[in-house]
């Protein structure tokens, strides 16, 4: 399959969707991003990378980072699952509602409460954001990947809801490190700036069932399968069912406008377009992935 030509066609097909939706204005630094940006990249399991549009323009990865911190945490064992569930939440990603009813155990690792627990778990092994940066630099081959300081400062100034989530879980003894330290690491991990190509290359280990770009194994087959499963059921906030219906791939979105998706055995895809729908997912990004699976016939179903 000529992936380069395919991506050109997808970009043309979704052009009417680019610029639709609204940027994440509750984070001031993200509110200033040009909404008509669009890029898509595909990293194949054999190492090939293809892209079109703004696929080499860095953007804030935001909640896409949660996939990678989960993988790094699980590389040290699966004890994490005693602290966070694996079910869809059915509520907004920053909701406090379910935590009280469920004794401080977040529904899944991709809502904000669950991601804070994952960061707290990874912090047992050093600074979570620094571990994540090291992983991205190694997998992408780009040692200059870093944290967008403006975005990090903006998020830190607007982190009251995340702070409330973390302290609430701490009251149930589901935080092991001081809340300010965990929040600092969490904000920095979400504020990492990467291109579509960087993200796709960094995620392709999930298409290889846990094997990194250098041939070493990060995760066992079972752990990689389970991350893909949780991405499918929980990765696009409370629109995961609609995403599974339209796209049919494990995916994880971020309010920076990025979505990373996995075709097991074939490739990882990253698409970026900052305009978000009411659920916080990229309008043009979902449309592009829908076209990708329609044109290729690649899905997990």
From TrEMBL:
Alphabetized Pfam families for the sequence: Glutaminase
What InterPro entries does UniProt report for this protein, alphabetically? Beta-lactam/transpept-like, Glutaminase
Positions with a binding annotation for substrate: 63, 112, 155, 162, 186, 237, 255
Q: Which organism does this sequence originate in?
A: Amycolatopsis thailandensis
Q: What protein name does the entry list? A: Glutaminase
What GO terms describe the biological role, i.e. biological process, of this protein? glutamate biosynthetic process; L-glutamine catabolic process
Which chemical reaction does it catalyze?
Answer: L-glutamine + H2O = L-glutamate + NH4(+)
Which PANTHER family does the record associate with it?
GLUTAMINASE (PTHR12544)
What does the subunit comment say? Homotetramer.
Q: Spell out the molecular function terms from Gene Ontology.
A: glutaminase activity
The record, for SUPFAM superfamilies, names:
beta-lactamase/transpeptidase-like
